[in-house]
Amino acid sequence: MIGQHPEMYGFPELNLFVADSVEEMLLYYLRQGRPQGLHGLLRTLAQLHDGVQTETSIFKVRAWLQERMDWSTKKMFDYILERISPRIGVDKSPVTVMKPEFIERAYAMFPKANFLHLTRHPISAAKSIREYLKQMSEVRENLFKPMLKTSGTPKPLIKNALKETTFDPARLWLYTHSSIINFTSTLPVGQSMRLKGEDLLSEPDLYLPQIADWLGLRVDQDAIEAMKHPENSSYACRGPLGARGGNDLKFLDSPRLRSGKISELSLKSKTELDWALNRQSSQKIIHLAKQMGYQ
């Protein structure tokens, strides 16, 4: 939505801040068995180079990247920003907050960037993370299982990639939001903004102008209306073969803004809390959720 403002350019998930160099970034996703972590970058470069995202343009971009393995990820991001200038780039890559070193790398590369902290209720977030893990498990199976039957394929690497990711979604919520708050608390006043995602989606006409004003952008009716149409983005759909992802799959399949109030579960809902939250950390989660405005 923010990237659809006429003065902005919304990227898919570029995931560049996980490493200092392009080579290290590629190895990071290879070791994790998550080639889809590169899909956003591939789609962006294909769109900027050829104006289209096709199987052919993705193939060309992969070759282009191979020739620039020695580039720093900062140089890669600067290159992309130059291609969209004078518009301002908007990067939403959830992996950036998975480790403190990732978000610190982002800040070191772009110390004047604005940081928008969008929150989500811990229970609905936990449900969403479980759905995402199920999706990724299916993606891995579809991608790697056929390779097990192929001679010459490194079997240990594939079997490692097929392993289930096991972690507690509620603890992930606590860890990432705590990390974001710890980081943004060190920034100068005005460089960061925190906003409940439920409020933004429930009342976009109220909150989108506030975000645009904070960023020093136009707040006229045409600009705000454009922000309410994320489906108009070149990246608001499944990509071609070789780069199908690049964003949340549910969004890619249904990118339109749905009007209406987003309901929030009560933090007192014991049944939901017991199901969704790790009991050892539930009090910390509830405390942080209340700090962020959830009841």
Word description of this protein:
Helix 6 (122-148) runs antiparallel to helix 7 (155-161) and helix 8 packs across helix 14 (282-291). The radius of gyration is 20 Å and the shape is globular. It has 295 residues and is mainly alpha-helical. It has one domain (2-291): Rossmann fold. The mean pLDDT is 89. The strands form two sheets. A two-stranded parallel sheet has the order 1-2. It is 52% helix and 5% strand. The protein is built from 14 helices and four strands.
Give the topology.
Layout: E1 8-10, H1 22-32, H2 39-50, H3 55-66, H4 73-84, E2 88-90, H5 100-109, E3 115-119, H6 122-148, H7 155-161, H8 169-184, E4 192-196, H9 197-202, H10 204-214, H11 221-227, H12 249-253, H13 270-276, H14 282-291
Parallel strand pairs: 1-2, 3-4
Helix pairs in contact: 2-3, 6-7, 6-8, 8-14
Key terms:
single chain, 295 residues, mainly alpha, Rossmann fold, two-stranded parallel sheet, two-stranded parallel ribbon, 14 helices, 4 strands, 5% strand, globular
Let me know the number of strands: 4
As a percent range, the share of helical residues equals 40-55%
Structural category is mainly alpha
Mean pLDDT comes to 89
Succession of helices and strands: EHHHHEHEHHHEHHHHHH
- Shape assignment: globular
